[in-house]
Write a structure and sequence with these properties.
- By secondary structure, the chain is of the alpha/beta class.
- It is 41% helix and 21% strand.
- The chain contains 19 helices and 18 strands.
- It has a five-stranded parallel β-sheet, with helices on both faces. The chain has a five-stranded mixed β-sheet with strand order 7-8-9-11-10.
- Helix 1 packs across helix 2.
- The protein is globular.
- It starts with a strand and ends in a 7-residue tail after the last strand.
């Protein structure tokens, strides 16, 4: 549980503010929202508001793209067997599905493999390389993995198999000697935007390949391929991987969300029907209703079925797979709940003052420990690393708090690992458990040194603007809609309202709080999810942080307020 929230308001350059207001027909509030998202030039604002296909960057700016396309065209010419190999999470599975759906339209000798989390862990492995070799494959395209697979790619080369890597994870010190590595973080990449999910990088590959095929007359006697048709899948993978919904990702999401509701993809249609989604789609619905079911396959069993779902044209096959995913997701929830409960008992009983939670168990299901680690971070606001142990090998999954870079800090003790990879806030590794004690000591020491100078219990909330109730109207709400779709790094605008009186407050469903406020003789109602612990602060005037949404159901639509935090009224609340 967070101990302290700090409300932060930004300072604005008035000249930039005025320029954005005049050039893009936004209010003072709208211009501040732009600046709070790093959009401080007319060029960036134009790219933000006009999230259209024509504003996608040149895919050939990604380092190695021309080499990758040349190698794929050589495979076409020589009738080689191409294998796609993807990770087993939503990003990897949507990446692999995107790659396969495009290549099968232009080439007949394409297959795919999804590894088993339980059998092989993360990334390319020699057993899969052997299988591909036995089946006559001569080109592997990895998606959402590969950049950390130096030895496995060397082994593939030894067998005469070329590898193209499509990845977005941090670049290791030892870079694989692949034919091409498509990763925006790779040194030399001129691509203007770095923070894509792997599915976004994969889309750039098919975008570049499609351009090349058009230029050489490939579609002269064939039906041209509409690349925007792939953005339904791309947007799901982008949102699920929690990358910033800005720049290239914003285009994927904005076009993709529209594509989802009119999708021709049988698998996506079936997922929407299963989740009772028909009116609109947003990042929240993908994150809570679609992504967990896709993820469940890789966590609990065989994720290959997800690629089958996203590439099938048979509604009966799709329904059968979605039913399986529903069951696996339910099983995942039960297993996760049991492990989380067990770990809470351990943590609470030990009352450890360590700055990072590190635990292991042979009974914990490897597929869910990452989710449990994320819940521990949310509850204790400390980094957490959990290990599932089998045959003396620990496979760990970690999550972190803002500022503590998991990947960078793991790199400092990489001599302990068999392999590792990840991002700032999520990472995985495998390790001989003989090194576990040393891992705990060294990683705890790193965390202790960091948190001596950083307080993980302080959670900063950036305020987009200060409003009174009179400011909130349908005109402002319609302007806020221009900033959608919302997601990571482009959150729903958060506003502050000072000196509000709680006429009534009550706890609902044990964790939420329902509020009736008044300000200057105006009355409005709000809900605060998971904020029941703030109930005692509602006995006098308060300052509130809130977002606003429209409830358009019924004949009388109204604006709904969602409380994000509240404090007893005090001028010192705002730094």
């Amino acid at each position: 549980m967070l101990k302290y929230t700090k409300w932060v308001r930004a300072d604005y350059n008035q000249n930039i503010l005025n320029t954005l207001k005049s050039e893009f027909n936004v209010s003072d509030i709208g211009a501040k929202i732009l600046l709070n998202r790093g959009i401080d030039t007319p060029e960036k604002a134009d790219h933000f508001f006009n999230a259209s296909f024509k504003n996608l960057h040149d895919p050939y700016l990604i380092e190695g793209m021309d080499i990758a396309i040349s190698r794929i065209l050589l495979a076409f010419k020589n009738h080689e067997l191409i294998y796609g190999f993807g990770d087993y999470d939503v990003d990897g599975l949507t990446s692999l599905s995107t790659l396969y759906l495009y290549l099968e339209r232009v080439y007949e000798k394409i297959r795919y493999i999804v590894p088993s989390r339980q059998s092989f862990g993360y990334g390319l492995n020699n057993e899969t390389v052997d299988l591909i070799h036995q089946n006559g494959g001569s080109l592997i395209i990895t998606v959402d993995c590969g950049v950390s697979n130096y030895e496995e790619i060397e082994y593939a080369k030894h067998l005469g198999i070329d590898v193209i890597v499509i990845d977005h994870h941090q670049i290791p010190e030892k870079i694989p000697n692949a034919v091409a590595i498509l990763n925006p973080y790779l040194e030399g990449s001129r691509f203007p935007f770095k923070d894509m999910a792997a599915v976004g990088v994969t889309f750039n590959l098919i975008y570049a390949l499609n351009q090349k095929l058009e230029s050489i007359g490939f579609f002269q006697n064939r039906e041209k391929i509409e690349l925007s048709d792939f953005l339904d899948i791309v947007s799901i993978g982008t949102v699920a991987d929690i990358v910033p919904l800005l720049d290239e990702n914003r285009i994927f999401a904005k076009i993709g969300f529209n594509q989802i509701l009119k999708t021709k993809n049988v698998g996506i249609k079936t997922l929407l029907e299963n989740a009772n989604i028909s009116d609109y789609i947003d990042a929240v619905k993908i994150g809570f209703k679609i992504a967990p079911k896709i993820n469940a396959a890789g966590r609990m069993g065989d994720a290959t079925k997800v690629v089958e779902l996203l590439t099938t044209k048979d509604p009966n096959v799709a329904r059968k797979i979605v039913d399986d995913l529903e069951k696996e997701n339910s099983e995942r929830q039960d297993v996760e709940k049991a492990i989380f409960s067990e770990i809470l008992s351990l943590v609470e009983s030990r009352k450890s003052k360590n700055q990072i939670i590190i635990l292991e168990n042979e009974r914990w299901h490897q597929g869910v420990i990452g989710i449990v680690a994320a819940k521990l971070v949310e509850r204790y606001h400390k980094p957490a690393f959990l290990f599932s142990v089998s045959n003396g090998i620990g496979r760990g999954s970690g999550r972190s708090v803002n500022g503590f870079d998991l990947y960078e800090n793991l790199t400092r003790i990489k001599d302990l690992f068999i392999n590792y990879g990840g991002h700032k806030y999520a990472a995985g590794l495998s390790m001989d458990m003989k090194n576990y004690k040393q891992f705990k000591q060294r990683f705890q020491s790193i965390a202790t040194q960091y948190f001596e100078h950083h307080n993980p219990q302080i959670h900063e909330i950036l305020i987009d603007d200060f409003l009174s109730f009179e400011d909130m109207n349908w005109s402002l709400y319609n302007e806020l809609e221009r900033f959608a779709p919302f997601g990571h790094k482009n959150p729903e605008p958060i506003f502050a309202m000072r000196n509000v009186f709680p006429v009534d407050a009550k706890i609902v469903s044990t964790r939420h709080i329902k509020l009736h406020f008044s300000q200057n003789h105006h009355h409005f109602y709000a809900i605060g999810f998971n904020l029941s612990h703030l109930m005692k602060k509602t006995r006098s005037y308060v300052d509130i942080l809130f977002t606003v949404q429209a409830n358009k159901k019924g004949v009388n639509p109204y604006l709904q307020y969602y409380i994000k935090d509240l404090k007893k009224h005090d001028t010192q609340n705002f730094s």
